[in-house]
Write a structure and sequence with these properties.
Largest sheet: none
Shape: globular
Distance between the termini: 41 Å
Radius of gyration: 21 Å
Number of helices: 13
Structural class: mainly alpha
Length: 283
């Protein structure tokens, strides 16, 4: 009996270790895609290269969606904790770094240009901070929206319907740092965590379907035209359609890449895999 328990515990530990390894590798790949995408955008001599290159389109179609999906996956446990506890921790972990690092970096550049103590410099360090490191601010807003929804759900389920209606009506105002555009990916991450056993069990079919839809959409749509930079969310027909197209491309691309990498690294505890996981753990 003791031998059986020991063997079972060892197997459970191995599964847990592989799962952690896999998710850290996903984080590493997501970080690499962001860096690669910014290099293609800012370090090429042809200004239009980023908007017409196939690799660029593949990256911008799903790299931020993948980041937000992974964030939503790990946010699932927060739903069962108190609102105050979760939001206070996220303010320290997410908002504080985005604000402080912007102040440090922007102060250095303003100092170098001799504008640090000018009205322009003060304006940059205050108003400019509102949109800097936009992903972290969008992530904080997604936590806030979801945690408020969970709080209303515990009070009265019908309140959630009213809450969702208010979110839709106030969508443009709430789209601070592209929050509304990122929220569907965060919600998909929560759903992935909730139904991960079923999704991973049927991963072959889901990977194939997601990959086909993603590739087709890459061919049909000009991805750059539907990015959050060119088509921010607006509460009209064009804005809603752009949001649906952007979400569909991001979700299918993220699931295709995520499930494919899971298949590759599920039983691949090699030196390269551990190195990638170490890099990913630095997020």
């Amino acid at each position: 009996m003791a031998e059986h328990v020991t063997r079972f515990s060892g197997q459970s530990f191995e599964r847990m270790k592989q799962r952690i390894l896999f998710w850290d590798i996903i984080k590493c790949v997501a970080m690499f895609l962001v860096v690669w995408g910014h290099c293609l955008q800012n370090m090429t001599t042809d200004a239009s290269y980023f908007t017409r290159d196939l690799i660029s389109e593949c990256i911008i179609s799903c790299h931020m969606a993948l980041f937000m999906l992974v964030s939503g996956y790990f946010a699932y446990s927060s739903l069962f904790r108190s609102f105050q506890e979760v939001m206070s921790k996220r303010a320290i972990q997410i908002l504080l770094p985005s604000i402080s690092w912007f102040v440090i970096i922007r102060s250095a550049s303003l100092f170098a240009s001799g504008q640090l103590f000018s009205w322009y410099g003060i304006r940059e360090l205050t108003i400019g901070n509102l949109s800097s490191f936009w992903f972290l601010k969008a992530l904080f807003m997604c936590y806030l929206i979801v945690m408020l929804g969970a709080k209303f759900y515990r009070v009265n389920k019908n309140l959630v319907i009213v809450y969702v209606a208010v979110l839709i009506v106030c969508g443009e105002w709430l789209n601070y740092s592209s929050t509304i555009s990122m929220l569907p990916f965060f919600l998909c991450g929560l759903l992935l965590r909730r139904f991960e056993n079923w999704i991973f069990t049927h991963s072959t079919a889901i990977t194939s379907l997601a990959g086909i839809i993603w590739v087709v959409m890459l061919q049909v749509f000009d991805i750059a035209d539907y990015s959050i930079y060119h088509q921010p969310f607006t509460l009209d027909t064009g804005g809603v359609i752009s949001l649906l197209i952007r979400t569909s491309i991001g979700v299918t691309g993220s699931f295709f890449g995520l499930l494919l990498m899971r298949r590759i690294f599920e039983h691949n505890d090699t030196r390269i895999a551990r190195f990638l996981a170490d890099v990913g753990s630095m997020t």
